[in-house]
């Protein structure tokens, strides 16, 4: 049985929205690279079985500011793992992407096999796949149902009904600290993020054909902020996001109005890196959320006090991209009582 509050791909979920970046570039967190490789394989298989496009492999361009530690560490892992990539000079960048400004970018790394996932669509495909396989799907909030001895025996839904289960898995994103305050309240942080989409003016449509891109814009703002973008994205425009915490967030009651100061920063970045979009109109804006462990790792582990209850989360957009591979790891751990592979033991609760 699959239970999802407000339905698959809803606007409040971490997996809501149209697109998410999928890439192997993770700097020093090289243990994610095999997971991304496996996730890409599984997303492609699901795409074929559902006969629905789920993945846009337009590549990911990482623009490096000096000294480019993140990109250097990523390339070292790529060489070790046999991942294809290109290292591009400023001259090569200017020739390949003439609509972008590279005056402060000495070089870049390009991942040709990466790109973007169609997030909301993917959630709907998984929902339908569970139903077509004979599983039950329900739209409801849920809490763990405990027996008189305090053991988890399933879930209690919003209407008061209880559904029994031998094993219960909660992957509730930003609601995990609220559901399990003693186990996760001090380990997971929920913060808001603002994401914007701009409409290229007539004559600047080539911006929608660019690769997905990302950079640590140290020189521009002097604060080490991290920016990323997904051109087009199901005809929603030129998506731009700042991967910097917007402060604590209540995913249930928080008003999803974007921060005007964040929009001003986004316009400043857009004007700097994509000059032809300096006056592009805002076509869409969203408030989403990150749910992160303090060590920035994902979470796959039993509840420390309820052995029949498993907790998955802590990854926000990363959790979605890696979802098929993380699900495979979790399924083996749950059904066969296997320990997590050595590089992934950091995904378990500690302390």
| Low-pLDDT windows of residues | none
The overall average pLDDT, rounded, is: 92
Overall strand count: 19
Helical residue percent band: 25-40%
Overview of this structure, please?
This protein is an alpha+beta fold and about 350 residues long. It has a domain at about 55-115 and about 190-290: D-Amino Acid Oxidase, Chain A, domain 2 (2-Layer Sandwich), CATH 3.30.9.10. About 30% of the residues lie in helices and about 30% in strands. The protein has ten helices and 19 strands. The strands form five sheets. It has an eight-stranded mixed sheet, with helices on both faces. Strands 2-7-3 form a three-stranded antiparallel sheet. A hairpin with a 4-residue loop joins strand 10 (about 150-155) and strand 11. Helix 1 (about 35-50) crosses helix 10. The protein starts with a strand and ends in a 15-residue tail after the last helix. About 40% of the residues are buried. The mean pLDDT is about 90.
Tell me the layout of helices and strands.
Elements: E1 2-4, E2 19-22, H1 33-50, E3 55-56, E4 60-64, H2 69-81, E5 86-89, H3 90-96, E6 107-111, E7 115-118, H4 119-132, E8 137-139, E9 142-146, E10 152-157, E11 162-164, E12 168-170, H5 176-179, H6 181-184, E13 188-198, E14 212-216, H7 218-221, E15 226-231, E16 238-242, H8 260-273, E17 282-293, E18 299-303, E19 306-313, H9 316-321, H10 323-336
Helix pairs in contact: 1-10
């Amino acid at each position: 049985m699959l239970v999802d509050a407000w339905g698959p791909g809803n606007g409040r979920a971490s997996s809501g929205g149209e697109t998410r970046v999928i890439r192997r570039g993770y700097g020093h967190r090289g243990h994610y690279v095999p997971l991304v490789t496996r996730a890409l394989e599984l997303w492609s298989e699901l795409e074929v079985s559902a006969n629905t496009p789920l993945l846009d492999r337009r590549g990911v361009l990482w623009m490096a500011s000096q000294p480019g530690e993140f990109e250097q560490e990523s390339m070292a892992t790529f060489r070790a793992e046999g991942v294809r990539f290109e290292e591009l000079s400023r001259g090569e960048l200017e020739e390949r992407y003439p609509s972008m400004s590279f005056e402060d970018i000495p070089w870049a790394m390009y991942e040709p096999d990466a790109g973007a996932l169609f997030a909301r669509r993917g959630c709907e495909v998984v929902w339908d796949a569970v139903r077509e396989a004979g599983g039950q799907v329900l739209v409801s909030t849920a809490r763990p149902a405990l027996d008189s001895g305090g053991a988890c025996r399933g879930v209690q839904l919003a209407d008061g009904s209880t559904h029994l289960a031998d094993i219960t898995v909660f992957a509730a994103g930003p609601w995990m600290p609220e559901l399990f305050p003693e186990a996760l309240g001090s380990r997971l942080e929920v913060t808001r993020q603002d994401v914007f989409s701009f409409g290229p003016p007539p004559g600047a449509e080539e911006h929608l054909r660019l690769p997905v891109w990302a950079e640590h814009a140290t020189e521009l703002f002097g604060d080490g902020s991290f920016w990323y973008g997904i051109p087009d994205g199901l005809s929603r425009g030129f998506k731009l996001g700042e991967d910097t915490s917007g402060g604590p967030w209540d995913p249930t009651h928080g008003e999803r109005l974007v921060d005007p100061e964040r929009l001003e920063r986004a316009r400043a970045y857009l004007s700097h890196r994509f000059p032809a979009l300096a006056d592009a109109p805002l076509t869409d804006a969203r408030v989403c959320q990150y749910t992160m462990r303090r060590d920035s790792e994902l979470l796959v582990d039993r509840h420390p006090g309820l052995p029949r209850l498993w907790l998955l989360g802590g990854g926000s957009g990363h959790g979605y991209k890696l979802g098929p591979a993380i699900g495979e790891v979790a399924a083996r751990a749950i059904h066969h009582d296997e320990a997590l592979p050595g590089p992934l033991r950091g995904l378990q609760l500690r302390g």
